[in-house]
Design goal:
The chain is mostly helical and 386 residues long. It folds into 2 domains: 163 residues, Alpha Horseshoe (Serine Threonine Protein Phosphatase 5, Tetratricopeptide repeat); 122 residues, Tetratricopeptide repeat domain (Serine Threonine Protein Phosphatase 5, Tetratricopeptide repeat, Alpha Horseshoe). The chain contains 20 helices and no strands. The longest helix has 21 residues.
Amino acid sequence: MKIIRYLFLLFFVLTVARPATAQVPELINIQDFRTDAKAAVDSVYNLNFEGAEEQLAVWKDKYPDHPLWTLFEGMQLWWTVLTDLHDRSHDDQFFETMKKTDYRAGKLLHRQPKHVDGLLIRAISNGYMARQYANREQWITSINYGRKAIQAYDYLLDIQPELNDLKLAEGLKLYYLDYIPDEYPMVKTVSWALPDGDKQKGLEAIEEASQNAIFARAEATYFLGNIHYNYENNFGVAVRNFEKLHRQYPNNSYYIRILVKSYYKQSRLDEALKLIESNLQRWEGNDLPDLQVVQEELLTWKGRILEKRGRTDEAIDCYTRAFTLGQELPDTGNRSFYVVSGYLAGKLLAKNGSKDKAKGILNNVIEADAEKAYRRQAEELLAEIN
């Protein structure tokens, strides 16, 4: 009888007497949290990770088991990885953290299957993993994680369709379902089986996400720039989006490098040079992260601008410095800017009569794996010199 009473009491404690822990609140539907989360995401994208943690500290103390905190750890690692994709030393930690995030979201969804936070976290974490596996050309794995992200997204769309973070995925789907059949005739033959797309509505949805989403604002702005630049040929609109990213996240070198490239491609060389010089000085003077990666790329662009302006000696200096940095960075042979800066340095050195220096650099270039066209030109130039 005592055992029965004990078991009943234990059952009561484990079930009835613990209602407070049974339901995890949906933080994303709390206005104060949305405000703090936006600020924290902005801090992550500006590589101010401590600032992001401070912004969410009150919420983390109140709900320590919420899977959001693991997601933010993964987002910080994402920027560590993305800043230099040639450096694979953080990949394992990134994937482990995002898988842990998905697992914790899954535990929450097991208890509360329609939990908006859990579904959103599952969609985001699997989306990040799909992107990184694609970066590593592990296509099947990428597709599997992408499918899991889409499943969570579709379920969210049924539960809370007005959620602004869904607008990015919806906009991309609408845009590409309209764009791809027109551009790829093979797809057009089966386009009747695909949902209808609408490029304009897609762009409008992405724009809405860039203004109002919590987690997807910066990504939406990036995709707006990318679509307008690469598909719509609206270069002015594209650059304005890249400028917006640089203004909002000045310590994020990824966005600086995109903007410099865009200025250069649009022959806005004065703006490109000003941006390069100010940020090289800022990175060197303030001990900002990934200095060598920033220098390698920006010095190559600076050399190209100076070469166009006939400042050959200064261009050679920029190219050779970038080339040397590439030798010190991970995965040297696959670094595009290592090959490009090396070829351009060798070309100018040969032109100036410094043939031995040119041959030394060009011999390294032709042994690399990146940028086949530049390697071919390096081989041709070596043949001329010899």
